[in-house]
From TrEMBL, chain A:
Record has DNA-binding as a keyword: no
Top-level taxon of origin: Bacteria
Keywords per UniProt: ATP-binding, Chromophore, Flavoprotein, FMN, Kinase, Nucleotide-binding, Phosphoprotein, Photoreceptor protein, Receptor, Repeat, Sensory transduction, Transferase, Virulence
EC code(s) of this entry: 2.7.13.3
Domain PAS span(s) in chain numbering: 30-95
UniProt-recorded name of the protein: Blue-light-activated histidine kinase
NCBIfam families: sensory_box
Region forming the signal peptide: none
Residue stretches spanning the membrane: none
SUPFAM superfamilies in the record: PYP-like sensor domain (PAS domain)
InterPro entries for this protein: HATPase_C_sf, PAC, PAS, PAS-assoc_C, PAS-like_dom_sf, Sig_transdc_His_kinase_HWE
Domain PAC: 97-149
Reaction catalysis annotation: ATP + protein L-histidine = ADP + protein N-phospho-L-histidine
Native organism: Filomicrobium insigne
Automatic annotation (TrEMBL), chain B:
UniProt keyword annotations, A-Z: Phosphoprotein, Transcription, Transcription regulation
Top-level lineage group: Bacteria
Pfam (any one): Response_reg
SUPFAM superfamilies, per database record: CheY-like
Species assigned in the record: Filomicrobium insigne
Entry protein name: Response regulator receiver domain-containing protein
Amino acid sequence: MPKKSKQQIDAEADVQGFKNELGPFVVAAETTRMAMVFADAKHPDNPITFANDSFLSLTGYARAEVLGQSFNFILAHAADAEALQKIDHQFLAASDAGAEIRYRRKDGSEFWAALFVSPVRLEDGEIVQYFASFVDLTALKVEQAHSRALIDELNHRVKNTLAMVQSIVWQATRTATDPSVIREAIESRLMALSRSHDLLTRANWEGAGLVDLLHDALEPFRVDGRADRIAIEGENIRFPPESALALGISFNELATNAVKYGALSNSTGSIHVGWKLESTGQGRRLVLQWREKCGPPVSPSLRKGFGSRVIEHGLDAFGATVELDFRPAGLLCTMSIPVPEGAPHE
Amino acid sequence: MNSILTGRRILLVEDETLISLMIEDMLVELGCGAVTSAATANAAVGLVSRQAFDAALVDMNLNGTSSRPVVEALAARGIPFAIATGNSVDDMWGDFRDRAVLRKPFGSDDLSDVLARLLRTERQSSIQ
């Protein structure tokens, strides 16, 4: 530790003088949770002449390491021109707003603080000390970064959702000319998307169980006495949000097809949805079968529709394969979806 | 219709099926000859190594992972490409900053313009 200059010794003695004269106020300054220092106004570097306990715990230094150091010794970047300018402005103008400055602790870690500086004047107006306080902004900065990330993510999702809506409208208007048919096609798909979002929102966007996904997707189709013609059998295995949304869309397409042309289009047909986990050479997979029976004879004309394409390719992004088998006895759809080891149940 | 697109072989890399199906239809309507889709970076990189393409459209974010490996494979083979993104902020990978970007959602005209520009630039640079 360098020897203290005469000036530093005098300046610290001045502070000691305040301590003797202003006992309770100094105790308050020493023990307040606000980090504070005094800096010598008569020296160009404004060396620190007093530092309270909060300043020491904020910066990680011992008092002896701080006293006599230039006011700017804890700057994160000594040559940070913007910070130096903001600090000068605080010293000259003592603005009420404070300045946000990036500082560095003794251990090298950086933190943001709001700096407020006020001059301490003698009766003749001469400035002898500067009083500086520091408000730790770490928590605020973390919060701001988190908000920024959430806004960016939300924007990304909204733009993607708008593109999905665009696709739904595009598709409906190019395959039909009857306005009521177009409206019905658009509404059905928008409502399906909306239901999947609701399910995920209820689960904090952490994922959704397969049983819950199916119940939600099929709910609008369980009317007119159809409820007991749909059987769902399997464990409530949880899927992450992205694949849950895609599954919701696929189930909606399957159910729509069943109502229009398949097992739910007459009064006798039924649907069985069942699945099991299988260990394969490429890891664990969930194999799901959507099996329709006792519907009207299956017409081959359905095979190239938009709905079929959505079902066949809806899970491509997740490494899944989907097969649509338009059997005369009823549609069989088989999905084989990779499931990470230890995927939780709901 | 932009005649420079006629008969072109386009690689489409997009993870959202609804969006992918629409862009496929747009490309076919624009006269493109063959549209091949991939929903994952692995599938796309495999296609780039096995098949010939005249141009590609690549979504920047594939189910939470970066499509950068696809873009690198395309750049290595000199296949012109545009990058599609739902982000409004400028977060393009530094070394691909000068590449064409399509911001979602986009219309058929935007798609046509971007691809035509890619293919024209390609033709000019191959003449030189």
